[in-house]
Batch of 3 targets.
Target 1
Amino acid sequence: VRYAAGAGAAGSAASGAASAASTVGARGGTVSILAMGSNQLVLDETERSLHDALALIVGGGAPEIHVSRLLSQYAQTLRGMEAYCFQAYADALEVIPTTLAENAGLNPIAIVTELRNKHAKGERNAGISVRKGFISNITEENVVQPLLVSTSAIELATETVALLLKVDDYQMTR
């Protein structure tokens, strides 16, 4: 199994490959990982796990704010209930960077507003730097998150909302 680590991408894989992947990611290049297992199923699962671990996107709330901005812009082109739904979805995505700022002990309103402004100016890699306590270029700091975590969270939230919208009547109980 051969994985290429692009500039700025750092991976964490299983059993000792983490340090090799981070070192290669900092320089850019290729790393070979020898995977041994008792049968083909174990090898296939190992390859899938390595792929998931190395499929990374920038962190710090940057992807969520970017998608939120795009959804808000699209919502402005719509009318009625559709516009409201797209704007509500965009607002819901902003909860992620807001929570990140709160957990870092920062002022969430000021931080998310600044993050929104930087993305509006075209700085797509601007994100919340928990270490520094302000907005910075998150790729320079090597802050990444697994793509699978983000896509799974968005898919699950979307499926949950779709399920709730299908319900005809709610009964509040305690």
Target 2
Amino acid sequence: MADRLIELEESATHTGPKGVINDWRRFKLESMDQENLPPAKRELLRQMSSPHRQREDSRASLNRKMSVQEYELLKEEDEGCLKKYRKRCMQEMHDKLSFGPKFEGVHDLDSGEAFLEVIEKEHHSTVVVVHIYKAGVKGCEELNNCLECLAGEYPTVKFCRIDAVASGASERFSDEVLPTLLVYKAGELLGNFLACTQHLTGEFFATDVEAFLNSYGLLPEKEMPALDDDEENNVE
């Protein structure tokens, strides 16, 4: 039982100060060019990266404090490695928070069957925004352009559009109620906005549509963009 508890501790997620230090030790070892390191420093790095080298002292090793030698080593040429470590941690956090499929652009639906399929068969975590429009109706083209912009900002949201006539329900979606926005998740209708441009200003933009949908809590949090090397260098 004691051995099992130690195994569970050793396999635990690296959270808290001790877990972060141990994770950093391993990352430091993986990042350095060990072939060009002096043998003594290479051995020290190996020890730093293995806090549970032996079964009998694994618990003590996990809880040990950083030595003066380790501290001095971490100070040497450490800035670049620290930035890489931070970038990796941010990417791991991003990956854990991101789930479900990703989409690009606004998807055209050509029939009522396609409309029903996207509502009923899409991933349960995916928000589906459907724009019902008609060519020539005021506000429809502008709203299409806004949704194209938002599709790039919210890749986990599936933005769709369908012509009112192609939907097979043109009698329900007359020109007076267009453009219409319908919002679904897991097959459930969350938002039904007829003549939705009446809720916007005369000249509206993607940010206005975004704010309108967010006022009803219909859009997820924006994803954190991955940092490129130039952006990472500006992070202090």
Target 3
Amino acid sequence: MSNISEETLPPTDLITLTRHILAEQSRLGSRATGDLTMLLNAIQLTSKFIATNVRKARLINLVGLAGETNVQGEEQKKLDVLSNDIMVNALRASGKTAVLVSEELDEAVIIDERNRGKYCVVFDPLDGSSNIDAGVNIGTIFGIYQVGAESSGTIEDVLKPGSQMVAAGYTMYGSSANLVLSTGNGVNGFTLDNGLGEFILTHPDIKIPSRGKIYSFNEGNSMYFHEPVINYLNSIKYPSQEKGKKSPYSARYIGSMVADVHRTLLYGGIFGYPDDKKSKNGKLRMLYEAFPMAYLTEQVSPPSFMQKYPSDGVIGGRNGYNREEAHT
């Protein structure tokens, strides 16, 4: 029998998402009740369920419009509606939630008292759904708040700053399903092993490079950009050579926030979708897009400028964006 070197053998000591969550619970000791662990396991299940349907969407006629619009006035895709139903049902069934707020619903879901827990979840069940039919990466974004000590679970429990979230993350669906999560102790990335049916730790303790080489803005809207934004983009496309040779940034824009942010967290650079003359309040939803992504960015590159200024709609390494320059 030929000898097989250890390098050719697959790893056997796998850190699954479930194992990671349980380790975080153990780290907290007697302070942990296990409720957040069970809630995160429910979110893990929804990610697997949605990933399965995204992969076979074309085969089971889940592409195309559902014939409705969401609270933002956007036309809903069939997969939007299904993903929302998956999340609402799984989170309600966990018994650990009190309030659910979804981009796809006009009103918050208040869980009945019998099944009510102590957490509130805000989420975009399928970000980037306009790209579904083209097979471009899309994703789920979520943030978790804890119900106030004197509250029984109302909409007021989610109308709080993003810094008060207890956990946040996203799952990206593409060539692989990647779940990125933080519970306030760093950011870790997991990849779904379809054979095992488990998310495996593949990106431990993610740290965004302080400065990258990629910028990600929808420059199709540049005619509506405010002058400071145009000046900033020109500064990274045509860098000054006065302080030594600098290379211009390269443009990469997918049009799916989860995919663009995922690349930015791993490779550095800048992602932005700021307000402009057409969209005076910006296009990013503060509660279930900007806040969760800012929470993650704060963990991978403190201090994060998006955590401090989420209304700017900009994410990136600490040396990639000068807010003062961009607003002068």
